[in-house]
Amino acid sequence: MVELARRKRGFFAEALWTFYLPKFDVLRQLLEAKAVGIDFSAAGLLE
Known about the structure:
The chain has two helices and no strands. It has helices at residues 2-7, 22-32.
């Protein structure tokens, strides 16, 4: 991908690092503490 971007004189960036931002750590802590949850039935996923 990097080589293709160089040949095409384009831009290539890694975006996975956003999963390591502090907000995701806070959300993980809240989910583990069961302070917040996800209602899959309300999302229509458990029909």
